[in-house]
């Protein structure tokens, strides 16, 4: 039988005749029987968490799954079922264990199990399982997953306290062909839920020109990035999101204009511009454009009215001249435009000077006009709002859709 304590380390041999000078290697440390690295009787005598191996107490190496609770295991039921009271980590289910356990829908989430909604793309069974409460198809083997919002309006409806921010959307859901995308959301003006799709900027770049006008209509493109939306910008959302309502915000003035029910059904802004035809030469259209639904824009200065129009030809001439891009001084526009008086009277005088970049070729215009972006910025030119430094991206007009 072992004594209650023994000495660990060496000591001088009794009767040694070595008279040389040597270092004393004796530690004279007491080794408590049953503790780590101390002697034991095989099969017995070691403290909890230790086992006797070769006469020495050593740490038990736990083998999770062997149905024996040992080492630092809290449980071990010997199975691979993580939905019961003991997981394959040999611990009870937890909302911080990094696995799908207990009643969780996905790893460490699910309102019922963890009071935390699951993130986009994670498994779900009902909407309340998700951080953004939409659960739908798109997972492996036709399972449901938490969906991304389809627009900033979608995000606003479920998170009414949300502020201006960049979020990820998926316009047609997880099963649709349109890829998810990052967009900027404007959440304050006229109810919020606005998705930024376009910026025309006085940034010394010829982006929105007559020669490039197809980009504003049916030719998808992506221009710029979300870090510099004061410069020329086109979001992939421009040709992806329905544009039922439009919001125009000018800077640095912050004058804004909201137009409701511009698009029909799934029409994007590009679809609206394309469907308008070009040039628009309707002498009865004055005051019958898309009516202002809200904002700080007022009829003043050179502005004939606050309506929104598209693709106007120059109406200071007869119909034939208005329809002919190469005629006289037909300063035709393309895209959103406002009616103003440049000297020949209202309505629709020199519309390219009250649009967002493109300027028709016209018969007497310099050859470079079709390849030049004219930074008049719509109603801002009529109201003398472009007070920022020229060519520096300080004067710009942004378009949001909802």
From TrEMBL:
Residues 8-27 are annotated as: Disordered. InterPro entries: Fibrinogen-like_C (IPR036056), Fibrinogen_a/b/g_C_1 (IPR014716). Residues 13-25 have a biased composition (Low complexity). This is Fibrinogen C-terminal domain-containing protein.
């Amino acid at each position: 039988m072992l004594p209650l304590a023994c000495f660990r380390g060496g000591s001088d041999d009794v009767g040694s005749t070595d008279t040389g000078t040597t270092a004393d290697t004796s530690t004279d440390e007491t080794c408590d029987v049953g503790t780590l690295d101390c002697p034991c009787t095989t099969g017995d005598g070691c403290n909890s968490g230790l086992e006797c191996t070769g006469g020495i107490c050593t740490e038990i190496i736990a083998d999770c799954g062997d149905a024996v609770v040992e080492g630092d295991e809290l449980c071990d039921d010997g199975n691979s079922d993580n939905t019961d009271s003991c997981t394959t980590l040999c611990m009870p289910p937890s909302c911080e264990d990094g696995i799908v356990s207990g009643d969780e829908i996905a790893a460490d989430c699910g309102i019922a199990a963890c009071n935390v909604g699951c993130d986009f793309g994670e498994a779900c069974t009902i909407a309340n399982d998700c951080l953004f409460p939409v659960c739908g198809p798109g997972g492996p083997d036709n399972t449901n997953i938490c969906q991304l919002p389809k627009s900033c309006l979608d995000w606003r409806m479920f998170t009414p306290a949300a502020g201006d921010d960049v979020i990820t959307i998926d316009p047609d859901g997880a099963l649709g062909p349109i890829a998810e995308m990052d967009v900027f959301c404007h959440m304050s003006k006229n109810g919020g839920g606005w998705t930024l799709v376009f910026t025309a900027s006085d940034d010394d770049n010829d982006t929105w020109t007559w020669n490039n006008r197809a980009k504003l209509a049916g030719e998808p493109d992506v221009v710029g990035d979300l870090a510099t939306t004061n410069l020329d910008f086109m979001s992939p959302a421009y040709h992806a999101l329905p544009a039922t309502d439009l919001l125009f915000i000018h800077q640095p003035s912050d004058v804004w204009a909201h137009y409701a029910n511009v698009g029909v059904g799934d029409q994007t802004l590009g679809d609206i511009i394309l469907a308008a035809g070009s040039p628009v030469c309707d002498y009865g259209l004055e005051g019958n454009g898309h009516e202002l639904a809200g904002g700080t824009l007022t009829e003043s200065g050179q502005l004939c009215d606050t309506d929104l129009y598209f693709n106007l030809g120059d109406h200071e001439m007869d119909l034939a001249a208005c329809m002919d891009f190469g005629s006289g001084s037909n300063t035709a526009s393309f895209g959103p435009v406002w009616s103003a008086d440049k000297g020949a009277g209202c309505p629709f005088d020199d519309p390219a000077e009250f649009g967002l970049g493109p300027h028709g070729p016209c018969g007497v215009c310099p050859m470079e006009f079709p390849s030049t972006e004219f930074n008049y910025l719509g109603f801002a030119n009529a109201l003398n709002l472009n007070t920022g430094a020229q060519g520096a991206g300080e004067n710009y007009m942004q378009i949001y859709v909802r």
